[in-house]
Amino acid sequence: MNKYDRLLYILNLLRSRRNLNARMIAEECGVTERSVYRDIIALSEANVPIYYDNGYKMASDNFLPPLNFDQDEYRCLKLALESTPLKEVGNYRDLLKRIKAKVDAGLSRTVRQNSRFGPRTTLIDISVSVDQRKVTDFFETLEEAVRISRRLSMRYDSISSGVTERIVEPYFVVFRGRAFYFVGLCLLRNQFRTFRVDRIISLKIMDEHFDRRPDIDAESYFEGSWQVYSGDPVEIVVKFCGSAARVVQSAQHHPGEQIERVDEGQIIYRVVSRGTAEIQRWILGFGKEAEVISPPQLRRELLALGVSLAAIYRSESP
Question: In the chain, is it the N or the C terminus that has fewer CB atoms within a 10 Å radius of its CB?
Answer without folding.
Answer: C
